[in-house]
Amino acid sequence: MFSSADLPETIPVFPLPGALLLPRARLPLHIFEPRYLAMLEDVLKTSHRLIGMVQPIQSSGEEQQKLHDIGCAGRVSAFSETEDGRYMITLSGVSRYRITRELTCFSPYVRADVCWDGFERDLGTSEHDDAFDRDTFMDTLGRYFHELKLATDWENLKEADDELLINSLSMLCPFQPEDKQALLEAPTLSDRRKTLVTLIEFALRGGANEEVMQ
């Protein structure tokens, strides 16, 4: 468990389109580019072992890749090395952050000064969504998975608590990067669930002309 006092002012950031990390969730990553292998080596030397996941802003014709202001930092909680020098790692989500300044340095990867203010709830216990109509949600989710021909373990989904269910679907469903950013920036679990439902309904209307869930 982290407290606000444990969070560093500067962290390495890993821009990866479509890769969403949320607090108290886990994200597996395959690290193979030399600059990110260097990042991992440096991170493992720190006490916090935090990497900041962040979405690049989708643009064309610009030399410098721009990043969204808000990302989510995760602690390297597991890693294994392959025979050819690549790494499989797991990030455990700790807290969202806001980038205040990207640093110009000799590092091959991006480092940034970050602010953790406004995301204090990320360091607490699991959130609950008191207005969550799970039966209706699962029905709509079933239609969405059928439309996209996605398979899942429905028994585990039905037994998952509110936060695990909503956050796991937010991370795993094949939404566009900007949609993933909207899910990340949702202030509360209830807001994230509403955003998730909106995205699922939009996909259904565009695919099979399904009715919107009331």
UniProtKB/TrEMBL annotation:
Pfam family of the protein (one): LON_substr_bdg
Molecular function as annotated in GO: serine-type endopeptidase activity
Principal EC category: hydrolase
Domain Lon N-terminal as annotated: residue spans: 11-204
UniProt keyword annotations, A-Z: Hydrolase, Protease
Gene3D superfamilies: LON domain-like
PANTHER family: ATP-DEPENDENT PROTEASE LA (LON) DOMAIN PROTEIN
Name under which the protein is recorded: Lon protease 2
Lineage: Bacteria, Pseudomonadati, Pseudomonadota, Alphaproteobacteria, Rhodobacterales
Name of the gene this protein is made from: lon2
